[in-house]
Hints:
Its main location: nucleus. The protein is mainly alpha-helical. Helix content is 62%, strand content 0%.
Amino acid sequence: MAHRYTNQEYLDKRRILASVVHSQLLYGAPAWHTAVDSKRLVQRLSRVQRKVNIRVCSACRTSAEGVAVIAGIPPIELQVKERVESFLFSKNMPKVKKDYKYTKTYNEEELAKAIEAINNGMPKKQAAEKFKIPRQTLQAIEAINNGMPKKQAAEKFKIPRQTLQYRLSEKFKKPTHGPAT
Length: 181
């Protein structure tokens, strides 16, 4: 006997298709969201959403609001506002400076000098500023040298474990060329 789809299986497939249509409708919403104040655009978006909701519910001749409730899909205006708010929230995250390359600003010699300066009594903040090394890196390396596991130090000072492992490995120390002194 052939497999028959249940109503729930059809509904799930239709909801997936509806999410694809909504993704296309809402693409770039943060850029054009000010136009949502326009009644004409809202009507066009609502018209498309109503057709999608009708197909999801397998309904006909039902009001846009009723179909939206049955389909469980919020109105398009609310979805636009949600996208804009999430975009604005992500915009407030730490920003990458324009035309700034995030590269390591120190080498192994400076790191060794900074650690030595700290061991000789220089405050970490002052050593970090003088040798241009992030203070968290110095604190993490010092903690590891005092017996803290690398994984725990990485979590505590918010530094990738691989970075700490590399900084403390022999690979980080470049070989010197020329005769031994």
